[in-house]
Design goal:
The complex is a heterodimer of chains A (about 200) and B (about 525). Chain A is mainly α. Chain A contains eight helices and no strands. Helix content of chain A is about 85%, strand content about 0%. Chain A is elongated, with a radius of gyration of 29 Å. In chain A, about 40% of the residues are buried. Chain B is mostly helical and about 525 residues long. In chain B, α6 runs parallel beside α8, α7 runs antiparallel to α8 and α8 packs parallel to α10. Classes of the chains: A mainly alpha (about 200), B mainly alpha (about 525). Chains A and B meet through α6 and α8 of A and α1 and α2 of B.
Chain lengths: ~200, ~525
């Protein structure tokens, strides 16, 4: 993969050595960048490449957005291509990210299930389930962008349904503990009262 | 009673049914929670809580009624116990008791506030707990105060008892109280009662009993002091008697009588010092009796000597009348001189000297008489017993006789005869060899035959025909009545072992051993032995 990309890069250098501001490249790489940056944690899977890509992009951006630097189109293109290459390395990490994200989501599911969140918060729980199932289907289809989107949504939903269930559980448990204490207290008092009356 | 029981059961059932309902609801809430139905669980819990709050409040009021009644009862008991002592009026403890009383009042107020709190569980509980705490503190504090008071009072009572014990021990040591006498028993009984009262904290009784014991001891001490004063007074009186006797020569310093009286007086004083009052009085009485006897004997001797002097003067007069004695002749002068010396000694209360002189005077007269008179002494007037014993040897009879035919056993009786000029007199009889060989022993004859005399106070008044007993004074054997027709051995010869001696002591003699012999030998008229 890397070898192919490198070859393309070299050829591109020759082919585009004489172009102006590479607006299309810029647009393309920008989109790619946006795609990468859409998933906050994706860059962590290829940090060096990401940093490099950002660096190159920044260089290219500076040239592209500066009218006075029209003559540096070649440099911009090179940077863009470099950035693109590196961004693509990052994008290639989407499956890994999706795997980890799925694992995280599974954890959230487990937490939500531990509190039986599906009972009192069925709708939200089912929503989360739908996102999760959709993500799984996308992964099977290697559609990692969608998979990641759905997984993120699923994780969030599950996390929120868990939080909601937790709050309710806490409230319920606090009340239950309280009434249990009261009951215990009442029973103790009545036992003592009975002993007084028995004297 | 039955109706009340049924009501109680119904009430209990109602209560317990409420509780049962709450318990069921709690269980339901828990079940719902376990199923994840938190909202439903919350509703159930709230439902149960409402029931329980109501029940808790009701039960709280009822339970606190009992708890507080219980705590109040304990506080009341503790306060009643303290009232049985005098602690609340005690200056040291009154402020603390007042604080406890305030606490008690506060407890009541808190209790009332708890009751008034009604449905406000927290307020009711808070006030009830304050009431409980206050009552408990009342009990704790009043018990502490009471114990401190009792400890203090016990210490004081303990000291009272110990002080009285010390007083008692001192009184016993001093002899004011004798072990197990009535006073001792009473004191011990009072102290025992005081100890018992101390154990039960009855301090008034402790004081009562210790005061009673103290009074008894003080009384005993006073009695001892009075007895001591009385004994001292008595000893002083006897001392005065003794000094008077010494001063008037009735007692001679250093002689046996002086020693005896002085010893008794000394012992009397020693006994007095050691608080042996009985012993002191006994010894003083002993000394007094001795002095009285000495004085009495001295008075007898003085009377005897006076009589002797009078008789001798009369005898001199008779001799002068019958020319046996020539007035102012040598014999007469000797006799007069002796009579004068005898009188002087008599006036100085020196009875022994007086007696010696008057006997000497009589002996001089005897010599004169013997020299001058043709008829011998011994003529008996009709009616008297012819003695003639001194020179007439009687015929031998069945009595024990020695080789020289004298009777070997001394006579026990003598019949008085009238003789002229020297008629029988106790002192003449005593002087005879077969009697005592010593005129000064006439007192023995007098004491043995006093009851026979017409006047027991007058030893001179013996009458012819009277049968006098001759008591054995030195262990000599005596039997039978003196026979003037016989000759007897002398008492000295009898005692020197020539004949069997009689060891039986006549009741009028002081002793039968050698001491009696020595005593008789030492017996002089001015120092008569006090029996």
């Amino acid at each position: 993969m890397k070898k192919s990309l490198f070859l393309i890069f070299v050829i591109s250098i020759f082919v585009f050595s004489c172009v102006g501001i590479p607006k299309k490249d810029y647009e393309r790489v920008s989109n790619l960048r946006e795609r990468v940056n859409k998933y906050d944690k994706l860059k962590d899977y290829s940090k060096n490449e990401y940093d490099k890509a950002e660096q190159e992009y920044a260089l290219a951006k500076a040239i592209v957005e500066d009218e006075t630097r029209k003559k540096e189109g070649k440099e911009a293109k090179i940077s863009l291509l470099s950035a693109e290459t590196n961004y693509k390395v990052v994008v290639a990490k989407m499956p890994d990210y999706a795997t980890d994200l799925q694992k995280d989501t599974d954890d959230e599911i487990a937490k939500a299930d531990s509190l039986k969140a599906s009972v009192d918060f069925a709708e939200k729980y089912n929503n989360a389930r739908a996102y999760y199932d959709s993500a799984k289907a996308s992964i099977e289809k290697n559609n990692y962008d969608k998979a990641l989107d759905d997984l993120l949504l699923a994780k969030t939903e599950y996390s929120e349904v868990y939080a909601m269930a937790k709050d309710k559980y806490d409230e319920s448990n606090t009340l239950l503990t309280d009434v249990k204490n009261k009951l215990s207290e009442l029973e103790k008092m009545q036992k003592e009262l009975a002993s007084f009356k028995g004297k | 009673m039955k109706k009340i029981l049924i009501l109680l059961v119904l009430l209990s059932s109602a209560v317990f049914s409420q509780v049962g309902s709450a318990s069921t609801t709690v269980n339901e809430a828990e079940g719902l929670q376990n199923e994840g139905k938190y909202n439903d669980s919350i509703v159930k819990s709230r439902e149960a809580s409402t029931i329980l709050d109501s029940e808790l409040t009701t039960t709280l009021h009822e339970l606190m009624k009992f708890r507080i009644a219980d705590a109040k009862a304990k506080a009341d008991t503790a306060m009643a116990n303290s009232k049985r002592t005098a602690v609340e009026n005690d200056r040291e403890f009154k402020p603390q008791v007042d604080e406890v009383n305030k606490l008690y009042a506060e407890a009541g107020a808190f209790n009332q506030a708890g009751i008034s709190a009604g449905a406000d569980f927290d307020s009711a509980l808070d006030n009830y707990n304050k009431a409980l705490g206050s009552y408990n503190n009342v009990t704790l504090n009043i018990n502490k105060i009471t114990q401190a008071y009792l400890n203090r009072e016990s210490g004081i009572a303990r000291k009272m008892i110990d002080d009285v014990r010390t007083m008692h021990d001192t009184a016993v040591k001093n002899g004011a109280i004798k072990t197990n006498d009535d006073a001792d028993k009473l004191v011990k009984s009072n102290l025992s009662d005081a100890e018992g009262a101390l154990v039960s904290y009855n301090f008034a009784l402790v004081k009562q009993k210790t005061d009673a014991a103290t009074n008894l001891i003080n009384q005993a001490n006073k009695t001892l002091a009075d007895a001591k004063d009385s004994a001292k007074k008595m000893i002083d009186e006897v001392n005065a008697m003794y000094n008077a006797s010494v001063n008037n020569n009735t007692i001679t310093k250093g002689d046996e009588n002086d020693k005896k009286v002085s010893d008794s007086l000394s012992l009397a004083n020693q006994n007095l010092q050691s608080n042996n009052i009985t012993g002191a009085v006994d010894k003083a009485n002993e000394a007094k009796k001795m002095l009285e006897q000495i004085n009495e004997s001295n008075a007898l001797l003085m009377a005897e000597n006076k009589k002797l002097i009078e008789d001798t003067k009369k005898r001199r007069d008779d001799f002068l009348k019958s020319s046996i004695l020539i007035i102012d002749g040598k014999d007469d002068r000797d006799v007069v001189g002796l009579i004068t010396q005898s009188e002087e000694s008599l006036n100085q209360n020196k009875q022994k000297d007086s007696k010696e002189k008057i006997v000497e005077a009589n002996n001089r007269l005897n010599e004169v008489e013997l020299r001058r008179l043709a008829p011998r002494d011994g003529d008996i007037i009709p009616g008297g017993v012819d003695e003639g014993a001194d020179r007439n040897l009687a015929s031998v009879d069945n009595e024990i006789k020695g080789a020289d035919s004298r009777v070997m056993i001394l006579p026990q009786y003598y019949v008085v005869v009238r003789k002229i000029p020297l008629t029988d007199a106790l002192w003449r009889i005593a002087a005879r060899g077969y009697v005592y060989g010593d005129a000064l022993e006439w007192t023995k004859l007098y004491e043995a035959n006093r009851r026979l005399l017409r006047d027991p106070r007058n030893p001179d008044l013996i009458l012819p025909g009277q049968r006098l007993m001759i008591p054995s004074i030195r262990g000599e054997r005596r039997e039978g009545t003196y026979d003037p027709n016989k000759e007897y051995i002398t008492i000295e010869e009898a005692l020197n072992g020539n004949v069997a001696t009689n060891n039986t002591v006549n009741t009028n003699t002081t002793n039968t051993n050698q001491n009696a012999t020595n005593q008789a030998a030492n017996n002089t008229l001015d120092n008569p032995t006090v029996r």
